[in-house]
Amino acid sequence: MPTTMHILCMLNVEGAPGVFEFKPSDGYNPYGSRKLAAMISVAEFPDSVNQWSMRVVIYSTPIRNLDRSWNCQNWVGDALEQLGAAGYLTAVQRESAYHQMIRVVMQARDGSSA
């Protein structure tokens, strides 16, 4: 566990197919959650990057409740794509984060440790 945490906000969607909704959690500390499967480092950003402009990009990621096969992992992938399109992430960072997320989800479904 890192000695210094810079966790400002967790941005995610919660729910079930057809009824997902956006749930930001300011001041969230994932280390205190029993639901935490793994921490995935996406990128480190310099202080010059405006977190609010990044949030706007993430907030604008659509929630596709009309698609019953769509889920919160799809939303994370879509948000990573949006951040890449906005120039915050490289293709390598985006793909790495996405594949790490899929690995963690598959391990959790198998009952393996992440």
C-alpha end-to-end distance: 14 Å
pLDDT averaged over residues? 84
Helix content: 25-40%
Question: What is the CA-based Rg, rounded?
Answer: 14 Å
Question: How many strands appear in the DSSP assignment?
Answer: 2
Runs in which pLDDT lies below 50 for 5 or more consecutive residues are: 1-5
Largest sheet strand order: 1-2
- Sheet-strand content, in percent, reads 5-15%
Helix and strand composition category: alpha+beta
Number of helices: 3
**Number of domains as seen in the coordinates:** 1
Q: What's the SSE pattern?
A: EEHHH
Characterize the biggest β-sheet. 2 strands, antiparallel
Query: Rough shape?
Result: globular
Characterization of the model:
With 114 residues, the protein is of the alpha+beta class. The model is unreliable at 1-5 (pLDDT under 50). The protein has a two-stranded antiparallel ribbon. It has one domain (9-110). The protein has 3 helices and 2 strands; from the N terminus they run ββααα.
